Automatic annotation (TrEMBL):
Belongs to the short-chain dehydrogenases/reductases (SDR) family. InterPro entries: NAD(P)-bd_dom_sf, Sc_DH/Rdtase_CS, SDR_fam. Keywords: Oxidoreductase. It comes from the Bacteria. SUPFAM superfamilies: NAD(P)-binding Rossmann-fold domains. It comes from Panacibacter microcysteis. This is Glucose 1-dehydrogenase. Its EC number is 1.1.1.47. GO terms for molecular function: glucose 1-dehydrogenase [NAD(P)+] activity.
Length: 250
């Protein structure tokens, strides 16, 4: 990926940071968009960090244009920014709904909107939308999150159809991944250790995933080896949701 440029949102931690580090290791220029700086040294000339609210069109436009002016191309976009808010149809506030939709769905539309014209110039762009296994199965009390992550599958298909063959678009749908967002959510419980064990037990793989595993899939999907994959939703979930409820391993 030498001389290619990747833009990654929510890039300061978790899956976003793992993707950024792997793109960098593969030789790409890496543009990190997040509200806070990453916890790694980004002083190399192939790193570019923007403190950017990706739910705001003008902020995204400015960051994308600066990235293009700096590196000369935009080849990959990883739409990873996301937040979790808890609630049902009757307990989710309108403010919480809007917040989740703005970060988890609108931002991915905005970033694609501003990156695609530059990808069309090179004729070979890839957009990865980080969705979730919860686009297929859900749990209690995550109405807004599940709705936004499911909507990303439609966004992915539409981009893939509208901009083929110049731009490919794929949704990556992780199961439970060991990220700061997961740890923060678990720590809200009176018994975090028990909740973590529940997370492990619900996966037939008998563990949760790592950000690096998701990043490896993202890199593959952006590579020429995945050139015949577009418009698809690919799960990386340790088998979550394939067992009958209540079934247990021997």
């Amino acid at each position: 990926m030498k001389n290619k440029t990747a833009i990654i949102t929510g890039a300061s931690k978790g899956i976003g940071l793992a993707c950024a580090q792997l793109f960098f290791a593969e030789g790409a220029n890496v543009v990190l968009l997040d509200l806070v700086p990453p916890s790694v040294d980004v002083h190399d000339k192939r790193w570019l960090f923007f403190a950017c609210d990706v739910s705001k069109s003008e902020a995204v436009k400015a960051a994308v244009e600066k990235a293009h002016n700096t590196f000369g191309s935009i080849d990959y976009l990883v739409n990873n920014a996301g937040i979790q808010r808890y609630g049902t149809a009757t307990t989710t506030t309108e403010e919480a709904w809007d917040e989740v939709m703005n970060v988890n769905l609108k931002s991915q539309f905005l970033c694609a909107r501003h990156c695609i014209p530059f990808m069309q110039q090179s004729g070979n762009g890839v957009i990865i939308n980080i969705s979730s296994v919860q686009a297929f199965v859900s749990q209690h009390n995550v109405l807004a999150y599940t709705t936004a992550k499911t909507a990303l599958l439609g966004l992915t298909r539409s981009i893939a159809v509208d901009y083929a063959p110049q731009v490919r678009c794929v949704a990556v749908c992780p199961g439970t991944i060991d990220t700061p967002m997961l740890r923060e959510a678990i720590n809200l419980s009176p018994d975090p250790a028990a909740v973590m064990q529940e997370c492990v037990d619900m996966h037939p793989a008998a563990r949760i995933g790592t950000p690096q595993e998701v990043a490896a899939l993202v890199i593959f999907l952006c590579s020429d080896k995945a050139g015949f994959i577009t418009g698809q939703a690919i799960r990386i979930d340790g088998g979550l949701g394939i067992t009958i409820a209540g079934s247990k391993r021997d």
